[in-house]
Specification:
The complex is a heterodimer of chains A (about 100) and B (about 130). Helices cover about 40% and strands about 20% of the residues of chain A. With about 100 residues, chain A is α+β, with helices and mostly antiparallel strands. Chain A has a single domain (about 5-100), classed as Beta Polymerase, domain 2 (2-Layer Sandwich), CATH 3.30.460. In chain A, helix 1 (about 5-20) packs antiparallel against helix 2. The longest helix of chain A is centred in the N-terminal third of the chain and has 15 residues, at about 5-20. The model of chain A has no long low-confidence stretch (mean pLDDT about 90). Chain B has one domain. Helix content of chain B is about 75%, strand content about 0%. Chain B is built from five helices and no strands. Chain B has helices at about 10-20, 20-50, 60-70, 75-90, 95-130. The longest helix of chain B is centred in the last third of the chain and has 34 residues, at about 95-130. The interface of A and B includes residues 56, 62 and 66 of A.
């Protein structure tokens, strides 16, 4: 993972601010592989309780993390009990590495 | 399309998706929102910065400058709605609940977006008149 300790802590703090202390964050996607060029970051956020404004919160988190990483492209995928479970969720959860 | 100011419900969006006429309008809204935002953020702002002798860099830097110059209200907000736009045009918003929230949020940002367009247009007129 091409994230420094400081960046990882920063991301965890932002996740907690946006989705609460119980939210889990995993990094998934091809960017996991060390030898690939740095660039995009894909995050899976898992929450146990439904949240209002799922799209807005995901977008807000992605924008904040992107700023933390100097504008790197960040995608946030949210997994919540009241949201549909799609193939992408299963792939992300199985591939994902907890931050 | 947005008849009331109330937040969109999942049921409403499901109904919309099933109604092809409304679905077309949803697509049109998303397409126009995206085009306006891209045009302002990716083309107009960088071009204006260059014209003023400013350096142009990654989007986040250009937007920060645009905010400092008062052309847009908030760079951070812009980035949030950029993300939302990406979400809206991605095929994988298959969840009507998520789409409803995204459309609602997009709707609330339209005024800010059009205000930015007007501010930038005035700025350009001003500069060209000098």
């Amino acid at each position: 993972m091409r994230l420094t300790q400081a960046q990882q802590h920063g991301i965890k703090r932002l996740v907690e601010e946006t989705f609460g202390p119980e939210a889990q964050v995993l990094v998934f996607g091809s960017r996991l592989q060390e030898y690939r060029r740095g660039g995009d970051l894909d995050l899976l956020i898992q929450i146990a309780v439904p949240t209002k404004r799922p799209a807005l919160k995901s977008a807000t988190l992605a924008a904040s993390v992107s700023r933390l990483l100097d504008g790197r492209h960040v995608d946030v995928l949210l997994q919540a009990p009241d949201l549909r479970s799609l193939p992408i969720h299963r792939i992300a959860a199985s591939q994902g590495v907890p931050l | 399309m947005f008849e009331t100011k109330e937040p969109l419900t999942e049921k409403e969006v499901q109904r919309w998706m099933a109604d092809s006429l409304i679905a077309e309008r949803m697509d049109a809204f998303v397409a126009r929102f995206s085009r306006l935002q891209d045009m302002l953020g990716d083309k107009l702002i960088p071009t204006l910065l260059l014209y003023l002798g400013e350096s142009v860099g990654p989007a986040i830097d250009n937007l920060d400058k645009a905010e400092r110059f008062g052309w847009i209200e908030s760079s951070h907000e812009w980035m949030i709605y950029r993300q939302l736009r990406n979400q809206m045009i991605h095929e994988y918003i298959e969840d009507p609940a998520v789409l409803a929230d995204a459309l609602d949020a997009g709707r609330s940002y339209v005024e800010s977006l059009t205000m930015s367009a007007e501010t930038l247009a005035s700025e350009i007129e001003r500069r060209l008149g000098e």
